[in-house]
Task: structure prediction
Amino acid sequence: MTSKRFKKLPEKTKELPSELINKLLPLVKKNCTTKFDESLDLSFQINNKQKKSELNIRTVVNLPGGTGKKIKVAVVCEETKTAEAKSAGADIVGGDDFIEKIKSGEMNFEKLICTPSMMIKLSKLGKILGPKGLMPNPKLGSVTEDLKTAISDAKSGQVEIRNDKDGNIGVSIGKKSFSDDKLLQNYNAIIDTLEKEKSNYTVKGDLIKSAFITSTMGVSYKLKLGKNI
Result:
């Protein structure tokens, strides 16, 4: 059932011509009519079905404007690195005992970081952590000896960019309360990252087939790609 609030929002916005993000931000913000600080989200459809292979993008990007979210970071490490992890701002730190808690289903965190030597033990929990997207990955910087940098990145605005089997990517550029400048900085960082990812593959045609922007409880607009200064 459609709410009274939603009925007041513009209709058939997906049928409008695509516009650059700087033109769309005021419209999307205007549609944030709920009482909470809605997220502004991008949705990409990529050309992942290639002749010789299927593209599987999985990377991270540090958003210069932050995410507006408090991320609970957990670290699995040796006892000798416990103090380093705690001083760097980790919310939960542990070793073998913590791995056992995860095994039993205790996962009250949004990001998991692990040192290389502990990853051997943690890798056995792939069936538990994998489906939730919590398994640390050296390519994403979450299996590392440099805990300080990994924790700082996770806390300050690092997000993962990953496509599903149908080629969809969803990622937030921040909150309604963010200034347009912050939102544009985050958007440009995401576009830069996707351009770099394209160079890692042999892609016939454009990598991104379509793009939309919306808010958590709003309506979608077609996005014309291009960096905004």
About this structure: The mean pLDDT is 90. Residues 13-67+158-222 form a domain with the Ribulose 1,5 Bisphosphate Carboxylase/Oxygenase fold (CATH 3.30.190.20). The helical segments are 4-7, 21-30, 82-87, 96-103, 116-122, 126-129, 147-156, 180-198.
